[in-house]
Amino acid sequence: MRITLAIAMVVLLTAGTGICETQQLVAGSLTSQNSTIDTGDTAWVLISAALVMLMTPGLAFFYGGLVRRKNMLSVLMQCFMALCIISIQWVVCGYSLSFGPDQHGIIGGLDWTFLNGVGMTPNAAYAPTIPHEVFMMFQMMFAVITPALIIGAFAERMKFSAFVIFILLWATIVYNPITHWLWGNGGFLKNMGVLDFAGGAVVHINAGMTALAAALVLGKRQGYPNGISPPHNLPFAALGAGLLWFGWFGFNAGSALKASGLAGNAFAVTHIAGATAGIVWSVLDWLKYKKPTTLGMITGAVAGLAAVTPASGYVTPVGAMWIGIGAGILPWLVVTCLKTKLGYDDSLDAFGVHGIGGIWGVLATGLWATKTINPDGADGLFYGNPVQLWIQLKAVLVTMVYSFVIGFVLLKFVDAVIKLRVSEHEERVGLDLTQHREAAYTIID
Amino acid sequence: MKYIIAVIQPDRLDEVLKNLEEKEIHLVTVSSVVGRGRQKGIAEVYRGHKEQGSLLRKVKLEIAVNDTFVEPAIKAVIDGARTGQIGDGKIFVLDLPECIRIRTGEKGNMAIG
Asked: Are A266 and A256 in contact (CB under 8 A)?
């Protein structure tokens, strides 16, 4: 079985290289010798792409419920605008930079700009049984939600114009290269053997580290920490968390790129890790603050889902429970203890939940990964292969440093050009009225 | 005893509350209200239609104080709420004939603090 799969992989990879060359010669008219479209796989990845798309509006409500009334629309607007802008950036150059023909392991070439040659026939190197265009759309939704996650760090104080310029630059200079390193054919971290099934490093560490940079560059909100009113609508936050959880099945199980047993396992471990972390966070809240909170429970679940993301294609259900336990404890410590001690204002804990959850998840993949789940993966430390943990650690460090440093520089650059932060008056009045001339709620019917 | 009603800009509330706290005036009731003055304010626009003649959002504070605290309370509100722009709001001072603390039944000056 294993040998057959190995042979299949070699055949597919060879076919993939062949197709890349063909595409450069006769873009658009390529035919695939070893790639035939599987209708079940295609249907599943189409649905998965739609599920992942729904995560960005879900995130908008998750974050929106946590801010003050006067900033509700600004958060919704930033999330939805990320959906529009990054989608178009993806078509223009983002997809090509991320997945296009490799340039020295660092970045994809510009051969696929404006989706040139990305058509209805499969690209065997990435997904041999679904149309290339479907793979492109599935990946587009990841590109959209990643910068949207960063909003949690700068919510309630960033100028909308600065936000637009920043995410466009960030997608191109940070997200696209990192995606290529880990997922692009020929990417140097992928070649190193890093396991990141659905984006623990690409999405969560990446967004989390730039989120930390954003919290530091923008500074605290007026009145932080004691003068900030509590979340204005926790039911919205719970609704958003539910939509995120739902979408995560597409995120992780869809990353199998097949309607297969592996997708089914990814589906199961995703749910298990989310549920475990939700329980753990609640228990910790209960022990330390005497009551289990709604916000704590949903935050824990999101942390668990984030942490299992890189591992979802490689671990068993029991492995997922351990990952969920770690994802309940580590982000909880950072959010409830470390953040207050260090005094940075990561408004909605984008770094604490996604950054820390992602770091834990990518490392934990190096602990609990097993070839019994995925023969194309690797064994982790607990399955007799300590080297994998070292490989995972390298990927974590590379992603952390690149995302933090370049994210920091980009924010400083945008700040120097047009200023990142709204005026003190605008911040007090709220971003809804001052940035968008709208109010989320009326007072009198 | 006086009953002070202040209608101020919502974004000045934190500052006013801080000032009142500093003058040891703790008894405050705050409500979110809408109203109309001479201010034009920030008009909201929905799909190109500017909402006109609308009532503007304000915050209303109600403060019951003993006579010696009247001037400090007024000063606290003005210092916190004044921006010098139209729409800063108003302060109304009313006589307060009686005040009763429900829990103990205490009346008058004792009940306010």
From this structure: yes
CB atoms A425 and B11 under 8 Å: yes
A433·B33 Cβ contact <8 A: no
pLDDT confidence of A30, banded at 50, 70, 90? very low
CA distance A126 to A17: 11
For B:53-92, CB contacts with A below 8 A are 55, 57
Report the distance separating Cα A242 and Cα A219, nearest Å.
Answer: 30
Residue A310: the pLDDT is 98
DSSP code at position B87: T
**Domain CATH for A215:** 1.10.3430.10
Does any domain span residue A270?
yes
Q: By residue range, what is the domain housing residue A87?
A: 44-94+142-436
Q: Identify which of B10, B45, B57 has the shortest CB distance to residue A437.
A: B45
Query: pTM of the prediction?
Result: 0.88
Distance CA A136, CA A147 (A): 18
Specify which residues A59 forms β-bridges with: none
Helix (H, G, I), strand (E, B) or coil at A137: helix
For residue A364, the model assigns a pLDDT of 98
Domain total in chain A: 1
Given a contact cutoff of 8 angstroms between Cβ atoms, the answer to whether A308 and A204 are in contact is: no
pLDDT 10s digits, A350-384:
999 999 999 999 999 999 999 999 999 999 999 99
Let me know if residue A127 belongs to a domain: no
**What architecture is the B2-112 domain classified under in CATH?**
2-Layer Sandwich (3.30)
Which position has the higher pLDDT, A340 or A58? A58
Q: Give CA–CA dist A102/A395, Å, rounded.
A: 19
Residue A6 has pLDDT above 90, yes or no: no
The pLDDT value given to residue A317: 98
Look up residue A115 and give its two tokens: 């989706």
Taking the CA of residue A437 and the nearest CA in chain B, the distance in Å comes to: 5
Spans of all domains in chain B: 2-112
Confidence of residue B51 (pLDDT cuts 50, 70, 90): low
CB A329 within 8 A of CB A304: no
Q: Which of A209, A204, A175 is nearest to A89 (CA)?
A: A175
φ, ψ (nearest 5 deg) of residue A384: 90, 15
